[in-house]
Amino acid sequence: MQTRMPLSKVYDFLDSLRIEKVMFALSKPVIPSAYANPFIRLITVPDDGVYCIRAVLDNEIREFCLKRGDLLCCLPDSCVQRIDSPENSPLSVVFKQYCIRFVCTPSDPGRRNYFYHSEHSLSPGGHFLLRGLLAFARENRPQTMLISVAESLFDAIRSDLDRDQTCESKAARTYREALQLMQSRFQSDVSRDDIAAALEITPTHLSRLFKQLGVKGFNETLTRMRLEHAAELLGDNKLSLDTIATQSGFQSASYFIKVYKKYHGTTPRH
Questions:
Q1: Are 253 and 245 in contact (CB under 8 A)?
Q2: What is the pLDDT of residue 3?
Q3: From CA 261, how far away is CA 266, in angstroms rounded?
Q4: pLDDT, tens only, 116-141
Q5: 79 neighbors 48 (Cβ within 8 angstroms)
Q6: Residue 269 and residue 106: Cα distance in Å, rounded?
Q7: In Å, how far are 193, 194, 205, 207, 208 from 212, measured between CA atoms?
C-alpha cells in the first residue's frame, strides 16, 4: 500500500542530500531469479542507516550495502535485489514517462510506502544530465566528475519540482488532480467514471483532458501505473504473481500476465 508524500518532504530530502560516491547498477550479467526493472532510477539512503543489496557492479554480481552519501544509478533492465531486513529505508527516484516518482519505504515494515509524483516529466535539461551520467556507467571516470554531474542532475530535478508550484490553468489543475487520484486508487477496481465523479466532471471531459494534456489516454495511463507498481513488486521474489496482481490493481494473475506480455513482450519473471 502507498501514501502520498507531501512535496515539502521531497524538498527536505533534496536539501539534505549528500553525494560522496556514485555507483552504477548494470543490466548484465543477469542475476538469477532477479527482476530486470525497465525504469531508470536513482537509489540512496537519506538517513544514517544502510541498505544491503545484490546488484551488478563493474560487470560482476556483488553484494554490498549502500550508506548515506552513496548514490546508486540503475540502468534500464538492471536488477537490485534486497538482501537485508526491511528495517532500512532507501529512497528511490524513478524516471517515468509522465512524471518523476519519489518513493520511500518507512522503517516500520507494517507501514505504507510514501510516494510523490511530480506534475511533469524530467525536463530536457535534466534528461540530458541523466543520460550523460548513465553514459559514464562503463567508463572509468573520476568520482569528482560523477558527483558533479549527479549534483547538477538533482538541481535540475529540484527546478522541475519548482514548476509544480507555478500557476496553472484550471484544466491543468484538474488533470493533475486526476493523476493524483489515480495514483492513490489504482490498486483498487477504479474506473474513468469513478475518477470523473470524484472530480465532479463528466467522463467525456476527463478523457478530453488526457487527450489534450496527457502523454497517453486515461485507460492506458491507469494500466501503466499498475504495471509500474508491479515492476517494483516483482523485485521481491517472495511475492507470488497472484499477490503482485492483486496489489497492483489487476483482476487476476492471468490477466496481469496477459497485460504485462502485451506491453513488455515477455512474461513476468520469464
A1: yes
A2: 74
A3: 5
A4: 888 778 999 999 999 999 999 988 89
A5: no
A6: 26
A7: 18, 20, 10, 9, 6
